Every structure is written in structure tokens, then in C-alpha cells.
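testing teh design pipeline on a random one, pls ignore if ur not involved
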């Protein structure tokens, strides 16, 4: 390597000053650049790197609820909405909703509840909760604020996520309705579960708590996916009426804008994509399939009633389970209540007057109802479509009205009531067996209260018949002034043998089956 000789430079004063000045300027420029960069960095809003949490922001889980053979008994949802500050606390917003519907709701237990919980992102305990019950016309809110006095108990919503974090095993305490309960989850095995969301390898846990015992729930199991997410794929439990299942229908993760951008990673070599399995051709829809055996009536049932007003015959009305077919893409059962005979001069009924309703064939939940009368009942004419998933009706095609879960039409109720568990209370002063059903009447929903009596013998067109009287109150003064009552036959068919509305009475004349 060639060596180079270094020489000592002898600079004149002007040259030394010039070199010094240049060095000073370069040093000052570098310092200014550094300082400005520091100030700029301090003024830049950086995405915070959040600590780990048991909650996955953006995760939304939806579930289908089924009861025995009823596959559309309701739905539920769990949603981790967002993460941020709540009164200086690092908090995660959780939401849930559960609704039982239609026949199951009225016959067994009505649930229409939503919850919002702001939970500590670090510890998972609730900071603020709001529970809203929608089982009556006017929603009721129950609010708890734990910001001032933190708690070390979960609520039902945060409990689910904590159980997931613990792998479905452990003992926890939670607070519900101002009371603290203990709950134990014990690993009990593994099982492959198939739901609408796909197939999952799961580990299931048995759940024990005094809270469940008080609710009459037994053999409670939760199935968690066996991967690191521990998604609750299914909840199962039994009641005195039968078994309920809440199965995962969909799982999605919506990325949250507050989370830092992911670190780039080296892409793996693409793996060959397997050819997807062929999708089977859907079975063609067949009209007029038989109804469920659990229903006390069958397709083609035809009931004829003699209608009297103040003791005078005014007409004949026919109730019929007409046909089962697809309507607007939905499997639908057509129920009719048609005036087939009318005494001239009466102002109540005319030939062809009546009600036509399409309902879910399994749950008898109303899909659409058309009421058409020409006499004194004409003010109640309407065409109403029910959206049972969103809890709303469209009245006459223009007015959207919110309704509680399980809301019936007046005609669907007449058929659904035959499946209800209507046992009279042993204590007349404590009618614990009253059944409450949401019913859309005129332009709004009402809560009808059904009060059963002991079976008795009534005189039906000269014959002695065993029947159970059901008294109905509605909260509508006009309707309640008419003393609504009906009598159901005291056998497995539970046929309405008599209706009484004010001075109008309908008595069963014939009971036949006319196959469609």
C-alpha cells in the first residue's frame, strides 16, 4: 500500500479565520438540525403501543340460539368495540345482546337484553356497566359506576372474556343484580363441534354456580376452541323444559384504528392451495311439508265458529291452517280467519272479512298479517310486516315501529297460545304462572298477560265440554273493557272452543282437517 505524506499547513490569519468560521457554521447547522428534529418529534402524535389485554378489539361473535327442535329460538352477540381512556383509565368497551324469540319466548322465558361494559384493559374488571331490558314496551336501564370505587368482581360480560383468558378453567366471582356469586369452570374433555361458522376442535368445561341453580339451569357446558384464541364456540344447558344451545354463527375481527401498525415480516413460501370441496346442490323446496310434532295442530286444520252478538247469531267464521309455502324467500305457514257466513243487517261482519297471516312454520312467529273488515272493525284494517331479527314492524308499508322480542300478531297468538305452558297458580293472590306475551295491536305493541284458570265444564252448544279459561289483560283500556277471554279444550290439541270479546262470543261448531 502506497504511503502518503501528511504536511502541516501554515495558514495566514485571514485563512485561519475563514476555516474557523466555516467549521462554526457547519457545527451550528448540525446542532440546529438536531434540535429541530427533536422538537418535531415531540410535536408528532405517535400511535401508542398499548399493553397486552384479554380483549381483542374489533372481535365480533354472533350466535344462534336453539331449543330442542326449534332452531330459531333467538340470537346473541359479543362485540369488543373499542379501546381508549375512561376518566384517565385504560378501558375497553364491550357490548352484548341476547334475544329469545317467538314461541319459545312466550312459552318458556323471554329475554331481550343488551349490555355495555367499560372494562379495565389491564385487569379485566368492569369500570362502568349499563344493562337494558327490552321485555316491556318501555326499556329499563340498570347502571353501575365503579370508577370511584373499583371492584374485584366481574360482571357476566367480562367474566366470559376472563374465562377465555384462563383457558376455560378456574374459580371466579361476579356481580349480578347487586349480588356477588362464585362460579367454577372445570375442564371436562374435548369434542369436535360443527356450527354455522364452521367446524372447531374444542375443549369443553362444566360450569357450576349458585346463580345457575337459582335460574333453574343445569348441566351447563361451554365449548372453547382449542387454539390460542379460546373462542366460546358453544354454550349448552338444560332446563325443566328441555335443552338450550347457543352455537357460534359467525366470528369476525374488525381491526381497530388505535392499535399500532403491524411490524413487517418476511413472507413465507406460498403453500399449494387445496381444491375446495364441491358444494352440494341445495335440496329443492317442497310445499306443504308436515308441521313439527310438538305443535298441537296440523296442516289443514279447519275450525268453524258460530259468532253471536248479545246472544243473536251474526255470522260464521272459519279458522284454518291453510298451506305451507315459500313467501318472499321464507318458509311460511298461512293462517286464515275468514267470515264464511253473515246475517244480513249486522254491522259487525260481512262475507269475506277476515285476517290473513304468514308465520314461521316452526315457531309461529309472525312474518306478515293483513286485516280487512268492512263493518265496525274497519278502523283496524292494516297490512303489517314483521322483521323478527331487528325487532321492528313496517306498518302499511310506511311506518317503521320498534317492537320487543317475541312480538306476535293477534292471529299468530291464537295459534301459539295452544303450545304455552298454562298451568293455574295454586295461590290466587300470587299468580306466579301468568304468561306475558308481546302483541302488536292497532299501531303499537302491548304486553298481553294471560291468566289461566283451573279446567272446568262448560256448555258448548248443548254439550258438556272440559275446557280451561284464559283471561287476557292488555294494558289497553279499550281492549281491557271488553273482558277478553278464551277457553282451550282440556286435551293435547288445546283447541280454542270459545272466544269472548265484550258481547261478542264465538263457539266452536266443527273441527276437521282438510289437506291442502
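output:
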Amino acid at each position: 500500500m502506497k504511503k502518503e505524506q501528511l504536511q502541516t499547513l501554515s495558514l495566514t490569519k485571514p485563512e485561519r479565520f475563514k476555516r474557523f468560521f466555516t467549521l462554526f457554521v457547519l457545527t451550528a447547522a448540525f446542532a440546529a438540525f438536531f434540535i429541530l428534529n427533536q422538537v418535531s418529534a415531540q410535536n408528532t402524535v405517535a400511535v401508542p403501543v398499548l399493553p397486552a389485554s384479554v380483549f381483542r378489539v374489533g372481535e365480533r361473535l354472533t350466535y344462534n340460539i336453539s331449543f330442542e327442535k326449534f332452531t330459531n329460538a333467538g340470537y346473541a352477540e359479543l362485540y369488543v368495540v373499542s379501546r381508549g381512556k375512561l376518566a384517565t383509565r385504560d378501558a375497553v368497551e364491550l357490548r352484548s345482546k341476547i334475544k329469545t324469540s317467538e314461541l319459545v319466548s312466550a312459552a318458556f322465558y323471554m329475554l331481550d337484553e343488551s349490555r355495555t361494559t367499560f372494562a379495565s384493559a389491564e385487569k379485566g374488571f368492569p369500570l362502568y356497566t349499563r344493562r337494558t331490558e327490552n321485555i316491556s314496551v318501555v326499556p329499563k336501564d340498570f347502571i353501575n359506576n365503579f370508577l370511584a370505587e373499583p371492584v374485584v368482581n366481574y360482571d357476566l360480560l367480562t367474566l366470559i372474556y376472563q374465562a377465555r383468558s384462563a383457558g376455560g378453567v378456574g374459580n371466579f366471582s361476579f356481580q349480578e343484580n347487586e349480588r356477588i356469586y362464585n362460579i367454577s369452570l372445570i375442564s371436562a374433555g374435548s369434542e369436535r363441534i360443527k356450527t354455522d361458522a364452521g367446524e372447531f376442535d374444542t375443549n369443553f368445561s362444566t360450569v357450576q354456580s349458585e346463580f345457575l341453580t337459582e335460574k333453574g339451569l343445569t348441566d351447563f357446558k361451554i365449548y372453547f376452541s382449542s387454539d390460542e384464541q379460546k373462542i366460546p364456540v358453544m354454550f349448552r344447558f338444560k332446563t325443566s323444559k328441555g335443552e338450550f344451545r347457543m352455537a357460534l354463527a359467525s366470528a369476525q375481527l374488525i381491526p381497530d384504528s388505535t392499535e399500532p401498525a403491524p411490524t413487517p415480516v418476511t413472507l413465507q413460501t406460498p403453500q399449494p392451495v387445496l381444491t375446495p370441496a364441491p358444494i352440494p346442490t341445495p335440496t329443492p323446496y317442497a310445499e306443504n311439508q308436515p308441521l313439527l310434532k310438538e305443535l298441537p295442530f296440523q296442516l289443514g286444520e279447519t275450525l268453524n265458529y258460530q259468532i253471536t252478538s248479545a246472544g243473536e247469531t251474526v255470522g260464521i267464521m272459519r279458522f284454518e291452517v291453510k298451506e305451507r309455502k315459500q313467501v318472499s324467500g321464507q318458509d311460511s305457514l298461512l293462517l286464515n280467519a275468514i267470515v264464511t257466513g253473515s246475517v244480513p243487517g249486522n254491522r259487525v261482519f260481512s262475507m269475506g272479512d277476515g285476517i290473513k297471516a304468514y308465520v314461521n312454520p316452526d315457531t309461529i312467529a309472525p312474518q306478515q298479517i293483513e286485516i280487512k273488515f268492512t263493518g265496525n272493525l274497519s278502523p283496524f284494517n292494516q297490512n303489517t310486516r314483521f322483521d323478527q331479527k331487528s325487532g321492528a314492524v313496517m306498518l302499511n308499508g310506511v311506518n317503521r315501529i320498534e317492537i320487543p322480542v317475541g312480538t306476535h300478531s293477534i292471529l299468530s297468538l291464537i295459534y301459539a297460545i295452544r303450545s304455552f305452558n298454562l298451568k293455574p297458580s295454586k295461590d290466587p293472590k300470587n299468580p306466579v304462572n301468568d304468561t306475558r306475551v308481546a302483541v302488536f295491536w292497532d299501531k303499537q305493541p302491548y304486553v298481553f298477560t294471560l291468566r289461566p284458570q283451573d279446567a272446568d265444564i262448560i256448555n258448548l252448544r248443548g254439550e258438556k265440554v272440559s275446557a280451561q279459561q284464559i283471561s287476557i289483560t292488555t294494558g289497553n283500556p279499550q281492549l281491557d273493557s271488553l273482558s277478553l277471554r278464551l277457553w282451550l279444550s282440556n286435551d293435547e290439541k288445546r283447541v280454542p272452543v270459545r272466544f269472548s270479546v265484550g258481547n261478542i262470543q264465538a263457539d266452536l261448531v266443527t273441527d276437521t282437517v282438510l289437506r291442502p
